Amino acid sequence: INVYARKRPLFDPEKKRGEYDVVSVKSGSTAVVHNCQMHADLKRMFVKHCAYTLSGGVFDEDAQEHDVYDRSAAPLVAGTLKGGVGALFMYGQTGSGKTHTMENIEKHAIEALFVGDGAAAGAKSIKVSYFEIAGKACVDLLQPGRVEIRLKELFEEQGDALTGQMEVELMGAKEPVVTSASDLKKVIDEGKSRRQTSATQCNASSSRSHAVMRLTVTLSDGSMGRLTLVDCAGSERKEDNTHHNEKQRKETAEINASLYALKECVRFRRLKFSGARNSNVHVPYRNSPLTRVLAECFVREDAGVAVIGTMSPASIDTEHSLATLKTINAIGGNEDS
């Protein structure tokens, strides 16, 4: 499991509002949030410097898109082209650059699968699934009319015993097979046009669902690999609910619950496979539709998993950035700094 963070630039409108940069990146591996707080006398202020060192590294605001891809996603693509499975998911506050980062990772992954590494590895075709998870519902983004998908677990058998290998079948999903980068891009664009967004206090066009893209690659030798990319719904604090209507508050509760389930599954997977192995550890992937979709990455030891937490540097978003770093730091198995 590799954990990364990415800091976006401070935008001009934020500067004009008087916002200032509260996030520093040290040596490409540590993010420091400079949290301005008040003393108990409510008269004097002080700055608490909260540092988080992440296993994968930290990208600053000047990081190039290809660098982010090469370090975080390229190893997962390479594993997929060898018949493995991998998942990358974006986590962070609404407006922190999640979707922007994911779109660029998608772009580079498509190029690698069809033009670069894919051609060398003998990728024949790719079956693509694209759907959103809103609450407990999985809705196909490749069909009109908000068609719901059912998740069915399939376990691999060897004789009379289960091997421990499994996958989740998407019952009722439209899963076109594409043979070119341009065809795959068209499918993705179609899905994105159907994704649910709504205005929130944080962002005028906030994603209120998790978008999941599954790319199942058929190789020339007949073997198959799978890459799953998840653009999580924007994580928001309980305090933000004061600006939401009842429907939005329910959505936020469901989003936060699924993100918590995801965090727990990654944590239990780490306990199961790293260090002193414990085969008795059960990864609770059935706790949410999001974690069920990613189940094979939690139960297979050879699966690759990466998480990128995105941060806004604006002073008004200090608590959000701290919460993101705290969450992804815990996923990586570290205590708070």
From TrEMBL:
The keyword Cell division does not apply. GO terms for molecular function: ATP binding; microtubule binding; microtubule motor activity. It comes from Ostreococcus lucimarinus (strain CCE9901). PANTHER family: KINESIN-LIKE PROTEIN KIF24, KINESIN-RELATED PROTEIN 6. Pfam families: Kinesin (PF00225). Belongs to the TRAFAC class myosin-kinesin ATPase superfamily. Kinesin family. ATP binds at G92, Q93, T94, G95, S96, G97, K98, T99. Residues 1-334 form the Kinesin motor domain. GO terms for biological process: microtubule depolymerization; microtubule-based movement. Keywords: ATP-binding, Motor protein, Nucleotide-binding. The keyword ATP-binding applies. SUPFAM superfamilies: P-loop containing nucleoside triphosphate hydrolases. This is Kinesin motor domain-containing protein. GO terms for cellular component: microtubule. PROSITE patterns: KINESIN_MOTOR_2.
